[in-house]
Protein: UDP-glucuronosyltransferase
Organism: Caenorhabditis remanei
Amino acid sequence: MIFLTSVLLGFLFQNVKTARILLTVMDQGRSHATSFNAFMHRLQQDNHTTALEFAKFHPDIDFGMEEKFVDMDGFQNPFASPDFDKIAFEEDYSFIHQAVAYGFGSETCNNILNHKREKFFEIVSEDWDLYLSDSLFAVCGYGMAEISGKPHVMMHSTDLESAQGSFKGFSRYIYSKIQNISFENFRNYATFVPSNLPFTMLDFSVSKYSHRVWAAYDWFGSYIFTAIVGNFAQKWALRSIIPFPYFSFSEYNRKSSFTFTDMPDSLFPPASRTNDFFSFGAYCKSSSKPLDSEFLSFIDDPKSKGTIIIAFGTFIDWRKAPDHYYETFSTVINQLTDYRVIWSMKGDRPLGLGNHVKTSGWVPQNQILHHNKTVLFLSHGGLKSTKEAICSATPTIFVPMFGEQTRNSWLIKEKGFGRIMNKFQINVRELETHIREVLDHPSYQQNANKFLTHYMDQPIPTLDEGAFRFNKLLKYYGKMPAYFYPKSLDLSYITALNLDLLILLPVFSLYLVSK
Ligand SMILES: *[C@@H]1O[C@H](CO)[C@@H](O)[C@H](O)[C@H]1NC(C)=O
Ligand SMILES: *[C@@H]1O[C@H](CO)[C@@H](O)[C@H](O)[C@H]1NC(C)=O
Ligand SMILES: *[C@@H]1O[C@H](CO)[C@@H](O)[C@H](O)[C@H]1NC(C)=O
């Protein structure tokens, strides 16, 4: 009887292998952890155990996962340094900054391995079946997966970064099909909108030669700075646990058994795909909680023509912004007395703002966006805010600050329901023009409504499909059989980039000429 029961149970649970999964994200990685949250919670529905690891400098929100934080209270978080604010407010973000950020992550990881070594090994010694690695800056997390010998999956809080894409032999940036050499394929990395889109190219178009040259430069620079410069710091941080030739980030990506991204397919330009890539990003988080009465009574004011919400994400602190940022925004919104403005800002309410402006250290952004009186969203264009704008069909003005925010803003602008404000031209006239354009032209709202219907039109809900693929991976103990993976992973860059073929023709011509 017992035998029969266990055979039966074994049969029932055959396809429902539950696993213990550790997600490791960047230091104090609230932003990235919340990007992955929807997917992690979906995996919990399939009875997987999900835990979250990061270096914690101060208490954070509840992520709905088991917490395996390394307590770094008392240490300096390099990401919270004034250098970072300077980059966000005053510099054009590029792959060089990206390498600096890997340096920041390495600095903390070095501190962990010097001062919190027991905690590090305690986490590794728990029996994880699979590691999920934040593709950005989770240096000690990479070390954990590497020394555990367990398979690991790459998690991208936005689209696959160009360097990481190249490490994985993806055709979208680099690899053209060897059997079917087409110049169109080969140019892919140049015809893609670069993730670090500079402010001089907010009108990016693949038909412009200079823009394609920039895209190729961005791809190449990202590759060099991630594979060599950023990796140098990682090698140093992990040197005590990964001996010579030390940790290789490109190899770590190459060996990863799967790649999941949070960038919605329907938002991104069409791109080639490999088996081991899936985007679970096209979902909407429901705003089930009703809006707080404090905000509701403010919004429902019958004299109001609509609500404008200003929220710049977790990283941006108005108090640290150069003075002209606050002056410009306050001057312009003080004139919009017909509207109700909700402005998310930390610290005390500054003097001189009108009664139609409500400031708050925390605002229920998603609920406000879903309120039908909300007419405009001013934000930095992080992917989570971008998706909330899409899901609530709210016209936007994005002021991108760093990372891939310019690219996200560009994607929304292309869909016709957003405008991009250049952070190097923050002045009253610019901001006024942008706001009036959106408020006075119904096309922005119409395009937002139209895009939302396309966005959610998926054959299977993406989180379900992602969970299905994840479970399939687990069926094979976290690494698919070799046939599943693209051949380009095993080719040298000379071959994968067709450089050998490109060199052949000139050499042959030279040979003929010299005859
Ligand atoms: C998860 O576990 C619960 C309780 O044991 C069970 O009822 C449910 O069917 C399981 N879900 C899946 C997807 O296996
Ligand atoms: C190569 O690509 C073209 C279209 O770009 C297609 O018509 C052709 O069938 C392909 N050839 C092979 C061998 O796949
Ligand atoms: C907004 O929603 C309220 C109820 O929540 C409804 O009474 C009102 O008609 C809606 N307004 C518009 C313009 O859709």
